[in-house]
Write a structure and sequence with these properties.
Blueprint: H1 11-21, E1 29-32, H2 42-57, E2 61-66, H3 76-88, E3 98-99, H4 104-116, E4 120-123, H5 127-133, H6 151-162, E5 172-175, E6 190-194, E7 208-210, H7 212-222, E8 227-231, H8 237-247, E9 255-259, H9 271-279, H10 294-300, H11 304-314, H12 325-339, E10 342-343, E11 345-346, E12 349-354, E13 363-368, E14 378-383, E15 386-390, E16 394-395, E17 405-406, E18 410-413, E19 418-426, E20 432-440, E21 457-458, E22 461-462, E23 467-474, E24 498-505, E25 518-520, E26 524-528, E27 538-544, H13 549-553
Parallel strand pairs: 1-2, 2-3, 8-9, 10-25, 12-20, 16-17, 18-21, 23-27
Antiparallel strand pairs: 4-5, 5-6, 6-7, 11-24, 12-15, 13-14, 15-22, 18-19, 19-20, 23-24, 25-26, 26-27
Helix pairs in contact: 2-11, 7-8, 11-12
Bound molecules: adenosine-5'-triphosphate and magnesium ion (MG).
Adenosine-5'-triphosphate binds at residues 33-35, 43-44, 46-47, 67, 230-231, 261-262, 269-271.
InterPro entries: aa-tRNA-synth_I_CS, Gln-tRNA-synth, Gln/Glu-tRNA_Ligase, Gln_tRNA_ligase_bac, Glu/Gln-tRNA-synth, Glu/Gln-tRNA-synth_Ib_cat-dom, Glu/Gln-tRNA-synth_Ib_codon-bd, Glu_tRNA_lig_a-bdl
Keywords: Aminoacyl-tRNA synthetase, ATP-binding, Cytoplasm, Ligase, Nucleotide-binding, Protein biosynthesis
Motif ('HIGH' region): 34-44
Length: 554
């Protein structure tokens, strides 16, 4: 990563600076701990940039750890997508990939240690009873009748759980802490439950699985994590995190710090909701370009640098907030404006016939790939007697503000000549089918010799040499800023979030690479659709428009 990306400080970095200055730690070890139950989204990118960014900047380490304690919801497809998304974002994990499931033997041994210390017991109340006994925020809980079993009895019953002699829900292991704690998580939390499920890493070895709160802190300690960074909803769980580590025999003492989640307007970020959109075919898969997933943003044409820049701009605090979608878009726009080569494509074509240009002639024009960066080179663009322009770039009549082609007036074709609209032809419905023009052959790369001014410049594509392409334009996936707050988030999906155009692109785009962004002159930033585009049927996605039109609408 370049110097230009040097990251600004935040409260977590200040804590680390102090820990290092105080000699509490001499190196930093973080981790990014996704649960492999869905694809990563832009919220995860915030956590990735924070954890891996800290490791990079402090010459420390950052583990990628799959927090895989819920076998029913997890899948190897998610494991693979997460690995590739982290790497695509420009980060690499230290050492081998970690799995919480690697520690199942140790976790089991620590559970037995807690039982031996009289700090855990096998519960046989039902889930409903457990909930009822737990009490509320205002009323203390009630102790379970199974709470004071002997160590021997608990050891035997826990072994019975492990051996598969209890049905799911018939027994669980609970920590014995405090049923009247003001922190609900401390009211004898469940540590282990029975699940007869096949696990993507451990197969059928286990039928008891540890809970997140028991697993996470021990995994952190076993990996020597120094700063365990998570989102604010785990603030109360920090009591339990510390309690577990204080009551087992383990060497390192990691600390948990919480920061606020990223919330983005006009989208949802919960994996449960994203997964519903996919399974109910409301979008075309996890990597649908309208999804806030890393793979969706990638397919839409976002660059890794633009996502890292976004994470840097939003910063890391403890304040809950909602970020405008346009601030994500402006990051990719800034990146592509600087780095994307220019090309021409016509989204809604109308035919222009240049009557004084020879019928079978193809003139090869040389056009710069970037207006301010000669080092990006040139490309060849064929110019022919028939070209296509945007229907919207022609008017029969217009006032002076309209700087495009008007009947009887002149306009410049980008990188080519000045043309003049002489007459038009319409179909029976009155739609313009052809604009007949003449061109001034003295105007290639220079102004007309007689000093007359031609202000407008429009883009175009050769009709015979251009290549048809499907062009997909995207809008917000939801019609309201906070769909998660709607009664039914699926009822506020934007029915016009995808518009498809049958356009034509300049021939150089046939060799466009996947993951390469282009500015199509005057219409926005585009990329090849990595899934649906083929050599015979090109498909382009619009990443973002040239300007923030959204801000104007609101
Ligand atoms: P969900 O609740 O949608 O399932 P999650 O938080 O459970 O999401 P995990 O896979 O457990 O998803 O997340 C991995 C890491 O990414 C966690 O440390 C989590 O705090 C962080 N994370 C998840 N969502 C966000 C977000 N919106 N903003 C910042 N960090 C996030
Ligand atoms: Mg989680």
């Amino acid at each position: 990563m370049s110097e230009a990306e040097a990251r600004p400080s935040n409260f977590i970095r200040q804590i680390i600076d102090k820990d290092i200055a105080d000699g509490k730690h001499n190196s930093v070890h973080t981790r990014f701990p996704p649960e492999p139950n869905g694809y990563l989204h832009i919220g995860h990118a915030k956590s990735i940039c924070l954890n891996f960014g800290i490791a990079q900047d402090y010459q420390g380490q950052c583990n990628l750890r799959f927090d895989d304690t819920n076998p029913e919801k997890e899948d190897i497809e998610y494991v693979d997508s997460i690995k590739s998304d982290v790497q695509w974002l420009g980060f690499d994990w230290s050492g081998e990939i970690c799995y919480s499931s690697n520690y199942f033997d140790q976790l089991h041994a620590y559970a037995i240690e807690l039982i031996n210390k009289g700090l855990a017991y096998v519960e046989e109340l039902s889930a409903d009873e457990i909930r009822e006994y737990r009490g509320t925020l205002t009323a203390p809980g009630k102790e379970s009748p199974y709470r004071n079993r002997t160590v021997e009895e608990n050891l035997a019953l826990f072994e019975k759980m492990r051996a598969g002699d209890f049905a799911e829900g018939a027994a669980c292991l609970r920590a014995k802490i405090d049923m009247s704690s003001s922190f609900m998580v401390m009211r004898d939390p469940v540590l282990y439950r029975v699940r007869f499920a096949h696990h993507h890493q451990t197969g059928d070895k286990w039928c008891i699985y540890p809970m997140y709160d028991f697993t996470h802190c021990i995994s952190d300690a076993l990996e020597g994590i120094t700063h365990s960074l998570c989102t604010l909803e785990f603030q109360d769980n920090r009591r339990l995190y510390d309690w577990v580590l204080e009551n087992i025999t383990i060497e390192t003492q990691p600390h948990q710090y919480e920061f606020s989640r990223l919330n983005l307007e006009y989208t949802v970020m919960s994996k449960r909701k994203l997964s519903q959109l996919v399974s109910e075919n409301l979008v075309n898969g996890w990597d649908d370009p309208r999804m806030p997933t890393i793979s969706g943003l990638r397919r839409r044409g976002f660059t890794p640098a633009s996502i890292r820049e976004f994470c840097q701009r939003i910063g890391v605090t403890k304040q809950e907030n909602m970020i405008e979608f346009s601030s994500l878009e402006s990051c990719v726009r800034d990146d592509l404006n600087e780095n994307a080569p220019r090309a021409m494509a016509v989204l809604e074509p109308v035919k222009v016939v240049i009557e004084n240009f020879p019928e079978d002639q193809v003139e090869t024009l040389t056009v710069a790939n970037h207006p301010n960066k000669p080092e990006m080179g040139n490309r060849e663009v064929p110019f022919t007697r028939e070209v296509l322009i945007e229907a919207d770039d022609f008017r029969e009549e217009a006032n002076k503000k309209y700087k495009r082609l008007v009947l009887g007036k002149e306009v410049r074709l980008r990188g080519a000549y000045v043309i003049k609209a002489e007459r038009i032809e319409k179909d029976e419905q009155g739609n313009i089918t052809t604009i007949y023009c003449t061109y001034d052959d003295e105007t290639l790369g220079k102004n007309p010799a007689d000093g007359r001014k031609v202000k407008g410049v429009i883009h175009w594509v050769s009709a015979s040499k251009g290549v048809p392409a499907e062009i997909r334009l995207y809008d917000r996936l939801f019609t309201v800023p906070n769909p998660a707050a709607a009664e039914d988030f699926k009822a506020v999906i934007n029915p016009e979030s995808l518009t498809t155009k049958q356009g034509v692109v300049e021939p150089s785009l046939v060799s466009a690479a996947v993951d390469a962004g282009y500015q199509f002159e005057r219409t926005g930033y585009f990329c090849i659709d990595s899934k649906d585009s083929t050599a015979d049927a090109l498909v382009f996605n619009r990443t973002v428009g040239l300007r923030d039109t959204w801000a104007k609408v609101n």
